[in-house]
Design a protein that fits this description.
By secondary structure, the chain is an alpha+beta fold. It contains eight helices and nine strands. It has helices spanning 3-23, 40-47, 55-64, 67-70, 84-87, 213-216, 225-231, 262-292, and strands at 31-36, 76-77, 114-115, 119-129, 133-139, 161-165, 173-180, 185-195, 201-210. The strands form two sheets. Strands 2, 3, 5, 6, 8 and 9 form a six-stranded mixed beta sheet that branches. The chain has a three-stranded antiparallel beta sheet with strand order 1-4-7.
Length: 295
């Protein structure tokens, strides 16, 4: 192959690689679960997937096996793109409408709960991979019946906590302060974590008890780091990727993109690489033509 043709072929290969990189979606890498107040899946995982203590966690394992607990940091929808109420039907909010986590939707009053009170509350979310997004916490309205499955209309539309999640976590945790309204009895705090650099979103239900209900509710405990480390080998969820997603990730929509997102960075890098490749191609050909001119 002539030198000029070799340069053209090399430049074409570079341009093809650059094009693929510019079109590829940013990798999904956000995973986690609420540890304060403790989510349902986290509470059962803390008890031990192989040896659950509470009856509801025993029943969960009998129904769905241990894998949902080892995958405590998932409960996601890859292509949510902000369409939460559209794609998650009433009664399936806690599972995010995923069969794998169906037991989390059970309407029972024996889920381990976190004791809370009206006023300032410090939310604590364990993340195994951080990412840009918005985490929003909702609470059920006064009069909520815990013997019925959670519906969208059960949630107070005013969030009790909102947090713009950064790419970096505080040693594996997102910590932020919200405000809980006056309530009595058992309630659910519902988490919606929508990424900004991907259509992926995460969900979770945390049982809480106000007032006298706290005296009878089983106390929820968050998983220890020892428990998390011991269960990692049994998890099917990558802590730095989609893992067990049931849907293929889609390209993030223009409206959902963050200007500082990895996807935007890839596009910028691709443009620079393309310009460099083209410049190198013409520069090389130009030098060759010059060297052939008679003196």
């Amino acid at each position: 192959m002539a030198p000029a043709r070799r340069r053209i072929a090399a430049a074409s290969a570079v341009l093809s690689a650059v094009t693929l990189l510019s079109l590829a979606p940013s990798p999904a890498s956000a995973h986690g679960s609420v540890f304060g107040p403790v989510s349902r899946v986290s509470a059962c995982f803390a008890e031990g997937p192989e040896t659950p203590k509470s009856q509801v966690c025993k029943d969960l394992v009998a129904d769905s096996g241990t894998q949902p607990l080892y995958d405590w940091n998932e409960v996601n929808i890859a292509n949510a793109d902000g369409r939460h109420q559209e794609i998650i039907p009433d009664g399936k909010l806690c599972s995010a409408n995923r069969a794998k986590y169906r037991a989390l939707d059970w309407a029972r009053t024996d889920w381990p709960a976190t004791t809370v009170a009206a006023g300032s509350y410090n939310f604590n979310v364990r993340v195994t991979a951080a990412h840009l997004g918005t985490m929003t916490m909702y609470i059920t309205k006064q009069g909520f019946d815990p013997n019925k499955r959670l519906k969208w209309s059960d949630l107070d539309p005013a969030p009790v906590g909102t947090y713009p999640t950064p790419r970096a976590s505080d040693n594996g945790y997102y910590k932020f302060t919200g405000t809980l309204p006056a309530r009595t009895g058992r309630h659910i705090i519902y988490k919606v974590w929508q990424r900004h650099d991907s259509p992926e979103a995460f969900y979770g239900c945390s049982d809480v008890a106000f007032g006298t209900a706290a005296t009878t509710a089983a106390k929820a405990k968050a998983p220890t780091e020892t428990r998390i480390d011991a269960g990692t080998a049994r998890s099917t969820v990558s802590h730095h990727g989609h893992g067990g997603d049931e849907h293929t990730p889609a390209l993030v929509t223009t409206a959902a993109r963050s200007t500082g997102s990895p996807l935007s960075a890839n596009v910028a890098w691709a443009a620079s690489a393309t310009l460099f490749a083209v410049s190198a191609l013409f520069f090389g050909l130009g030098r060759r033509r010059t060297s052939r001119r008679p003196g």
